Amino acid sequence: MTTTLPAYDEVVARFEPVIGLETHVELGTNTKMWCGCPTDFGGEPNTRVCPVCLGLPGSLPVANKAAIEATIRIGLALNCSIAEWCRFARKNYFYPDMPKNFQISQYDEPLCFDGYLDVEVNGEMVRIGIERVHLEEDTGKTLHVGGATGRIHGATESLVDYNRAGIPLVEIVTKPIPGTGALAPEVARAYVAELRDVIRSLGVSDVRMEEGSLRCDVNTSLNRPGEEWGTRTETKNVNSLRSVERAVRSEMLRQASVLEAGGRITQETRHFHEDTGDTTSGRSKETATDYRYFPEPDLVPLAPDTAWVAELKAALPELPRLRRKRIQQDWGLSDLDMQSVVNAGAVELIEATVAAGATPAAARKWWLGELSRRANETGVELADVGATPAQVAELQGLVDAGKLNDKLARTVLEGVVAGEGSPTEIMTNRNLEVVSDTGALTAAVDEAIAANPDVADKIRSGKVAAAGALVGAVMKTTRGQADAKTVRELILARLGA
Ligand SMILES: [Zn+2]
Fold first, then answer.
1. Which long-range contacts (CB under 8 A, 24 or more apart) does 374-379 make?
2. SMART domains under this entry (predicted)?
């Protein structure tokens, strides 16, 4: 539909973007929002359901206190005001994954409102206004089968799984964010990353984008300088940090090409495509009247006790931004080094590795080196790479004890990532321990001397530097397992140098 896209630099020279983000977070409560069904991810389809979350006639919802508490804590961490009195609302729409044919949500009376979150972008602080934080319930999941793409087009059947229906869902909506210019994509990404860290620090959700427990919709509009804000589009379910950035950027480029050609932007939902990095038109956006909101008659209003809210506020954990500053000082990192740790998503991992006994430098080396490389190669988040902080600390302990050298440690780490067990188990099972026992090494040393008589002569005549070649030969026959220092000492002793 679109022809050649304009260059990004030209777009930001001619247009000003306004972005906005709506983020849905599945809470990690033990039970669902209105019933006692369990909430864990996975499980056979339609096994975690009951009359309430299946919306059967005559069933009545009861609000989950833990979910309300978690939502208030999120609101407080985002500097929001907490409503002294508010209600749930019925949002009416028909969709097969919504068993009740309406969703219990909040409308004009959100539980938390008018807050902000400070995020750092390229060393500068950007304050993102938070419009509201409200509580609702998740829908089920529709699976389209029989087609090649998993989409409804080409599918032979559509199946519905209601295990997720009724899981408490918190929606966090930013105020419109103008004035970010060329940095709009980065600001969007930094906001979602910071929000994720804040929510994780509260321990109320595992905020895994790839499992859908944190989902993001991105609003984008463009206007010419001095003009009113443009019509915005909403790109749905963007499910990685990188995609958040790409979605804003590609939507800016697309809208600019439409506007430059004299066209108009349609207010609509758009779908982001991970493979191509662009968006395609979805449905035209419903307005609030389409949903026919009204106060939920089956639930009593919510009136959080102010003393309770004050207690929750006082008990909030140290927030990630402040914690990062403290950690940076403790670890003695430069701004740039700290930034690379943050960008790699390694702060908590390194912290936990240090807590398990490694030095900050060693922990950082493994997580930012070998493990980051692996995570990039396999396209997973660092936390899901397959090694735990305790295992990394154990690995480093084996290096410090002289049982593994750097090369062997990397081999052991591969085994850890492959799920072969703990570093000590892998070292033992695969016989990877450094051999420093002189008895075991003498034979290999003698063999190397016999095989390289000219090198041996040089060493005998005082050219000690030549010993390196023999050390190399021994390392080769021992598959890198010999302790190089011991080997060198043995060679020199054997040759009387
Ligand atoms: Zn249920």
1. 374/417
2. GatB_Yqey
According to DSSP, the residues that pair with 91 across neighbouring strands are 103
What's the gap in Å between 53 CA and the centre of ligand 1?
4
User: What does the pLDDT look like over 51-72, one tens digit per residue?
Assistant: 999 999 999 999 999 999 999 9
74 alpha carbon – ligand 1 mean position (Å): 24
Q: SS3 for 303-334, per residue? A: CCCHHHHHHHHHCCCCCHHHHHHHHHHHHCCC
- CA 60 to centroid of ligand 1, rounded, Å: 11
Per-residue pLDDT band at 495 (split at 50, 70, 90): confident
225 SS3 class? coil
**CA-closest candidate to residue 166, choices 99, 108, 66:** 99
Give pLDDT tens digits for 205-235: 999 888 889 999 999 999 999 999 999 999 9
Give the pLDDT score at 306. 96
Q: Which two tokens stand for residue 309?
A: 């809210």
**Does this model's pTM top 0.90?**
no
- Burial class (CB within 10 angstroms; exposed 0-12, middle 13-18, buried 19+) of 360: middle
Q: H or E element: which one contains 376?
A: helix 370-378
pLDDT of 85 > 80? The answer is: yes
Strands 168-174 and 124-137: antiparallel
Please say whether the dihedral angle defined by the alpha carbons of residues 51, 52, 55 and 61, taken in this order, is positive or negative.
Answer: positive
* Dist CA 238 CA 191 (whole Å): 14
Q: Would you state the pLDDT for residue 286?
A: 63
The CA distance from 69 to 304, in Å, is: 9
> For tokens 């609302």, what's the residue?
89
Distance 168 CA to ligand 1 centre (A): 12
User: How far apart, in whole angstroms, are the C-alpha atoms of residue 335 and residue 346?
Assistant: 15
The residues placing their C-beta within 5 Å of ligand 1, an ion, are 35, 37, 50, 52-53
Q: State yes or no: pLDDT of 84 exceeds 80.
A: yes
Q: What SS3 state is found at 414?
A: helix
Fold of 438-494: Arc Repressor Mutant, subunit A (1.10.10)
The pLDDT confidence band at residue 465, using thresholds 50, 70 and 90, is confident
Place of tokens 């909040």: 106
Ligand 1 mean position, distance from CA 54 (Å):
7
Q: What is the pLDDT of residue 288?
A: 66
Query: What letter does residue 107 receive in the DSSP assignment?
Result: S
Please list, in sequence order, all residues whose beta carbon lies within 8 angstroms of the beta carbon of residue 267, skipping any fewer than 6 positions away. 231, 232, 233, 284, 285
Residue type, 326: R
CA of 29 to the centre of ligand 1 (A): 13
Q: How far is CA 136 from the centre of its chain?
A: 23
Q: What is the mean pLDDT of residues 432-459?
A: 86
What are the domain boundaries of the chain? 8-311, 318-429, 438-494
Position 34: which residue type?
W
